[in-house]
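Regression test attached.
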Amino acid sequence: MLIGLLTRVGMTDPEMLTELRAGNQTDMPKLVASWPRLEARSTPRRQIAVVAGSRRQRKRLETAALRAGWLVVGGSADEDDAVALSRLLMSTETSAVLLGADVSPGGDEKRHLPDLASLVAAATQSRPELAIVLAGGAAAYESVFAAQDDARPSVETATPATPIAPANRTMPVAGAGIDPVDPTEKGTAQAKKVSKKAGAAEAAATPNGASFAGASGDANATDSRASGTIAATNASPTVAEPAVPQGPSILLAIHATEAHEASSHVLLAPDAEAGQPAGSSLQQVLEGLRAFPNDSRLGVARSIGSLAYLFDRSVEVVEVGLQGGLSARSEPFGQGHLAVVSSHACFADASFAPVNPSEEVIDGVLAWSTMVMDRHRVMDRLNDLRLAPWGEAAGDGAIFRLAAAKAACARLVEATPELAAQSMPELLIAAGGVFSALPPSVVALALADIVRRPGVSQLSVDSARVLGPLGVIEGEAERRRLLASLADDILVPLGGLILPAGIKQGRSAGFLRLKGSAPVSEVELHPGAVQVVDLPPGRGARAEIDFRDAVRLGQRGRHFSVDVGGGLSGLLVDLRDIPMRISDRPDSRRAALDAWQRGMWPDVDQ
Amino acid sequence: MSVVEPIPGAELQPEFARVAARRVLVFSPTIRYRLGPGDRALVAPGDAVVPGMPIAERTPDAELVGVGRLIRPENGKSGKNDQRPARAANDSSQLWKNDMADRAGSSGKDRPPMAIKPVAEGRDRRRPPAPGKWWVGGDERRGKPAKGKPAVRIGGTLLFEARGQWRAAAGERHEIVESPVAGVVREARNCVEVTIDVSGAALPGAVAAGVPSRGYLDVPRLTDGELWVSALDVARSGAVVVAGSRITAQAISRARAVSIRGLVAGSVGEGELRDLHASELRQRASLAPSVPFGLIALDGHQRRPIATPILALLAALAGREVAIVTDPPLLVFDVADVPLPDLPPDWIRARSGPHAGREGRWLKSAGLYRFRGGIYLEAAVVRFVDEIETTTVPVADLERFVF
């Protein structure tokens, strides 16, 4: 592909090709091979079995695992018997087990924990490739696993077990938190290595053990031993910013075992309530266990952090892909805005075509679809979309893909209430292949449909889909430098969005005057409508809005003057309700969605 | 799965090489049988298997049972449920060896009727208890059964040991799983899986359901790419029938009723798959043995005809023994020399979109092309069969065949 691209460059601009051939390299394949490569890849879906003593605890653990991007199956001792739980552990689709309890387990779960620990430890004898996470009070049963290892009979399997991660690779965890350049984060986390032979935790981190480091990528843990138990004790965040979900950005290096090693991996993790917000510490640990070191989805979250610093604005991204989705937010804070607060959550269920779509997923797609379809038809189309994710991207297929993407975004927004509780970001980015194939105006409307918070924002789409790969660059400074030079090219401006809340029904909601380099244009605002004002990309303007009644647009008032940016779809003024109110009747709902959509996508039938 | 040769993309035009390649045949694929608690493998890694050979024993109604206390110093002299005299030895593995020998019955008359002697049973019996180990027990272990009631024997696998007592997943009823294919066992783990390296070639499918099965391949004449349900009669019992573009719920019900071993079609809807799954669950619960039945959809869920190269391949294999495998979806045939249809090198098929299922020839690349709704996609100009006019189709909707 690169050779083909260079050939085209040579045909259109020979001088540029000469510049690229800096070393007088005339052989195109050799030239391409000599270039440095940055590899990013999506982590395939992975399933974790969540086991707890009580239903209450299981729900908490499942929430943390879901936010870390795992497919989750779960059971609790008070609801399921050991055979049902064992079925979860023995399934070849399960690649990790999370056994958790409160730090001080209550009576409802404490009495089940010894049996559960024995059950999970026994499962590792049949399936040594399982990664085990003992969270909270369950870590007290780590000795059960050490004892199982000592007593393990000879392994009968002929082939080596599949490791959860490539052998001898470190798996960095980049979780929610403050940007690594923030000097305050140093020393906020600890790790300790537990010797399996001794069966007891050593108190201090060893030079050979797992270590935490800043997200600048200098995770230099060099554990050469094949297996071990790693304790990930996550300290509380050091920055007091209660309104902002955060936790220190940490790289947790977990050394996977050798592929041929029959030992299981046991990881000690914080309980499901640790961190701010609750569960974020466990989420970080589980995310590191799941994702590849060069996972492109987590790369998007890191790129967003860099963009927030570069633009000095709050940035939010909604990314939807085949293996899952990501919701991330970053914003500068502190004196001089030198640090960035970031948070993110990955969800396997936020795929636009999830595996075995549930009834809720089907309901979601039907709710956003403007086509008449029955449930079986929706399910068939979703399943086929998973088989050929780039197929049927035009015609009716595009309308269906849009509905599937909106449903996935809606699931993402619903699963991240802490982000929905924050103010509208100054820059809102849509990412993922499903958006890059759609017309810009349709993507802008989809963002306005899904992210409904009062405020003013600039909408963009990562049409080249390079935020993920650029986020894989480990050096924060290097990533920022690259993003600074590429940001204008990789982020296609969709347009500005003005989204007031509290618009009352009536003939007119007020007037908007757009003052820029062009002549002043005045637009009458109509409640319940999405109005588009021409404002081309690269142009800014000042919008003065006089509402008939008081509304909320950041703050409550009637007269507002805000700076807005242009884009391919112009300036969107969304005067629909927040949250959006549409009829529950399928016909009425479809008609309303179709009317709004046709306004932004007039040539959908052409 | 292994392949015979790398996909020959380098020799093709660069634009044509970007069309998704669909491999029609795979050779020596690895298939998997998933097992659960209470299930055991009857084969060992390296064993050669032939069609019809038992490879696993399932325990469909496995329940949690207490096995009894091991006699260890910390557990006292004997367990709560153990009626046997306490032994003085302190080597638990030795105790278990004796214990298992007792349970199996030294004379052989108490041997459980359901047990098919696995290859490694003798070795297994001498092993100390471990998770996944096969265990047999029952009423007679706890004294005389009530008058008029037969002794219940249960079998299953050990799950875990807690406080000196082992728990097992065991049940009365057991089912033997037979291999539908020939090959070599790659991995065999009680409660987990049996994987087999198949000897022979296979046709990959997109969706599979039911259970692995085997039968002779029947390719009836298809009317407009479809097979009428009435054509599925008792004369086709024992066959794997090629059913055309789509499998309906009626076709599945009828095929199962007349002991057809499997159906192969272009597509199958999710509704039909759910019906089949529910029907299987009912059949399992009814205790009535049923012949294994599997189905394969070669393209997916939405209706589209079977690709002509694949249909030609199936027609050439008609009458031979084939096997439907569900994990991964494969139609396996133990044929060394597979008759391959001749295809023009630029032959393409629309796999999705409004032209799904149509076939034709690649003419040229159309570059970035504006489609309906203002959507720009990389496109190609193709000429479908029986058409004079050319059609511009998104490249992502096309596939080419690689043997």
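Expected vs. actual: identical. Confidence is low (pLDDT under 50) at residues 1-10, 77-117 of chain B.
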